[in-house]
Amino acid sequence: MVMACRVVNKRRHMGLQQLSSFAETGRTFLGPLKSSKFIIDEECHESVLISSTVRLLESLDLTSAVGQLLNEAVQAQNNTYRTGISTLLFLVGAWSSAVEECLHLGVPISIIVSVMSEGLNFCSEEVVSLHVPVHNIFDCMDSTKTFSQLETFSVSLCPFLQVPSDTDLIEEEHALKDVASQTLTISNLSGRPLKSSELFKPQTKVEADKNTSRTLKNSLLADTCCRQSILIHSRHFNRTDNTEEVSKPDGFQEHVTATHKTYRCNDLVELAVGLSHGDHSSMKLVEEAVQLQYQNACVQQGNCTKPFMFDISRIFTCCLPGLPETSSCVCPGYITVVSVSNNPVIKELQNQPVRIVLIEGDLTENYRHLGFNKSANIKTVLDSMQLQEDSSEELWANHVLQVLIQFKVNLVLVQGNVSERLIEKCINSKRLVIGSVNGSVMQAFAEAAGAVQVAYITQVNEDCVGNGVCVTFWRSSPLDVVDRNNRIAILLKTEGINLVTAVLTNPVTAQMQTKEDRFWTCAYRLYYALKEEKVFLGGGAVEFLCLSCLQILAEQSLKKENHACSGWLHNTSSWLASSLAIYRPTVLKFLANGWQKYLSTLLYNTANYSSEFEASTYIQHHLQNATDSGFPSSYILNEYSKLNSRIFNSDISNKLEQIPRVYDVVTPKIEAWRRALDLVLLVLQTDSEIITGHGHTQLNSQELTDFLFL
């Protein structure tokens, strides 16, 4: 990557400054309207186009201790959830700056850790009210409703915080009428309800406009948190369940209103569109993949009475750069690419069922399974070592071919590498050998074709061979889908196989990785929504509620210090209690500032505001109204009431059911929040380069600053 640097002040916390520097590089990736970046290698001058935090961090120099910790946190989030990474990175930077400010004001580290952890836990409890139950999705499937009917409504901005023009207001009211008709009001344990996040739009004059699709344009944002944990000094950020439950301040529990009607999502298409966050093309492929799995499960069971679970481990991608995007599709079976030299073999096999053998290791002459002990003290002396090696591999390849001929096997799937010499021999004998096959693919063919996986070709017998596999070209004209590496796409399937492949195409090779990443992000969003049977209503209400609640807590702590202390910590020393009472409002304020920066940056990224300051001012206006009321959730409900009273009297199209809502997954966002704060507090407590006291005066001007190269 082209070298970038930032000045690091040695008088301040080095580790936190480094976290802020790394986080600054990914600000443009926050929200649905991501600005792509070109990463240029200084040595070879090659470039790649990226639009994700994970790909960005792969190109940065993360060799420092802080960089490695950040990379581990990001990789843990990505490997598990495939979403929430941009949120994690941004909050790491925002909360690092918040902690730096606390240190600058002299707040003890123990107080920072305690109050920030408790503040985030408190937010976790409050946002539970935004849960939308997802039940019986496949019991209520509407075959007449398709993804394309809803995808015309672009969902990529944050609607409830954008400032609409007069001509946009008719679209705004259209959306709010939909929200008013079916509002989310799920109460948490304290009975506090909250509705949908499409709120806080300014009141302006209604003017006619035919375009209603932009109403929910770019509606995203529901980063949430609902699980308590404590900071553990571990490179893997482990959690424990024996954490002490945090009590809420007494004053806040008085803000309880009546429980309202509960909204549920029970439609797959609506859920998929709501989770697409504007990426309709990727989510449409995911939704079609789920439909194929569901149909296959019904066929296998003979009915659809048993509960269906979306199995993401049986979804695969096949990337074909150089082809138009319209070629992207989803197919049952396994689609992969093989060398064009296999073209005659495919033509020979495509009109007949073939027998299959599955090799779970490498298919090479010198492969030995893990744990194999080679015989010791054996030497082979030969005049020509090359002749020995060539003869050995040739004999081995001939033996493998004889085994395949003996059991009439025409297709071999290998989980590892395959000998090039063996591939040549198999092509000549009209047999297809495919290497580097995913383990789940091997298992699926074992189940459907009746094959048994073996480690060595010598273990093959009649009971290990599968039957009835169909081999064909992905397209009727194979030369039309030859990629730039001179490979063709083929399709392998058999009756009842539980495999679905998404073929991803793009004419620009540099965008292929981004397209695949976006597909998997959508797939995991839908997977966790179905698995957890709940989602958050998106649009920014979660972050705004956290911001409002923390603001009120800070004000209450300032006014009722002693009362608040008794409500937050138990069995603490008088010194700690008094210190906590003094510093809690300050720490809560800076923690809330992280949410303010988050929302401001997100709004600025939508290009609706000329600066982050303008976006922050707009948020602050509504935040002041919410905190002045003392009841953030009630303020939200009142805003809805004002808008709805005017909407119900307007003549708006009755096709409101077609406007999609915006959802977000629960656990991935919860973990993004938690990992971000855990990382910041870990670096805070373990960094030994904090300079305090009179040592400041001993540094000259050159020693005060340093450069952090990215």
TrEMBL record:
Keyword terms of this UniProt record:
Cell projection, Cilium
Q: Where in the cell is it found?
A: Cell projection, Cilium
Question: Which is a Pfam family this sequence falls into?
Answer: Cpn60_TCP1
Which GO terms of the cellular component aspect does the record hold? cilium
Q: Does the record's keyword annotation contain Plastid?
A: no
Question: GO annotations under biological process?
Answer: chaperone-mediated protein complex assembly
* Single GO MF annotation: ATP binding
Enumerate the transmembrane spans: none
List the Gene3D superfamilies: GroEL, GroEL-like equatorial domain, TCP-1-like chaperonin intermediate domain
The UniProt similarity line reads: Belongs to the TCP-1 chaperonin family. BBS12 subfamily.
Q: How does it assemble?
A: Component of the chaperonin-containing T-complex (TRiC), a heterooligomeric complex of about 850 to 900 kDa that forms two stacked rings, 12 to 16 nm in diameter. Interacts with MKKS.
Q: What does this protein do?
A: Component of the chaperonin-containing T-complex (TRiC), a molecular chaperone complex that assists the folding of proteins upon ATP hydrolysis. As part of the TRiC complex may play a role in the assembly of BBSome, a complex involved in ciliogenesis regulating transports vesicles to the cilia. Involved in adipogenic differentiation.
Name of the featured protein:
Chaperonin-containing T-complex member BBS12
